[in-house]
Design brief:
mainly alpha; 10 helices
Length: 255
């Protein structure tokens, strides 16, 4: 495994996803799909609320200062701005929660696969509370993209640099492609759905397609992250044992 290159890492990740599609499919349905939906829905709803705020700001500008209409619009505008920030905070909270759980679930599953331990969906879900408190503290100030593709932490910490030595170019290439794919999906969703001018049915279809692509990308990103970690461990003649699950979470979080 230590000799796997870029193509080999991709192939290994695809093999894991295909061979364990039922297990990973359950994780995707319960954790990754909601994460993807919230991520895309946040862009759409925020855009609609922001447009409404802009319209009310224009009305406020044209209203006579001090008039009943002026005060009414100002009050409405203040409420809408407050609701927008509350909505963003709620979305960030749920994104954080599902990101934590998705990362831990996939890392644990692939670790069990590599170590030959029995793994079931119920067992995976039962391990999540054990790492919940630690991950919440660590992840609190980390952005969504770093949560999903925390390979960047592997490139920016001392422990990670030592581990990734010899496979830096492979990890960097994969990280770049994953993030490029994420950006493409975001742009497509914004152009075709958020700012789209086509029929509603077409916008809904485009939104569902983006949702499908996004949760597949997130799953692939999390699996391939664990594959790279295992390749690096093998490259340095280190064993993938029970402790590698917690070690990988630490590396992923940049500790």
């Amino acid at each position: 495994m230590q000799f796997l290159g870029l193509f080999g890492v991709y192939t290994e990740a695809y093999k894991i996803i295909f061979s364990w599609r039922k297990m990973l499919g359950q994780i995707t349905f319960v954790l990754i799909a909601p994460l993807s939906f919230i991520f895309l829905a946040h862009m759409e709803v925020s855009h609609l609320k922001f447009r409404k705020i802009v319209r009310n700001e224009c009305k406020l500008y044209n209203a006579q200062d001090g008039s009943p209409q002026y005060h009414k619009i100002k009050k409405t505008l203040s409420s809408e701005e407050k609701y927008l920030w509350l909505f963003k905070f709620a979305c960030f909270t749920f994104l954080l929660i599902f990101s934590l759980l998705s990362t831990s679930a996939v890392v644990y599953t692939v670790t069990c696969i590599y170590t030959g331990r029995e793994v079931t969906f119920r067992k995976v879900m039962s391990t999540l509370p054990k790492v919940w408190k630690t991950l919440m503290v660590t992840f609190f100030c980390i952005s969504l993209i770093k949560v999903i593709y925390n390979l960047i932490a592997v490139l920016t910490t001392k422990k990670s640099k030592a581990l990734i030595k010899g496979k830096l170019s492979v990890a960097a290439a994969i990280f770049f492609k994953l993030n490029l794919s994420l950006v493409v999906i975001q742009i497509a969703f914004q152009l075709l759905v958020v700012h789209g001018t086509s029929r509603m049915v077409d916008r809904v279809a485009c939104g569902l397609l983006c949702l499908l692509l996004l949760f597949k990308l997130i799953l692939f990103g999390l699996v391939i992250q664990k594959v790279i970690y295992s390749v690096c461990k093998s490259f340095h003649q280190e064993n993938i044992d029970r402790s590698s699950h917690s070690d990988h979470l630490e590396v992923s979080l940049g500790e």
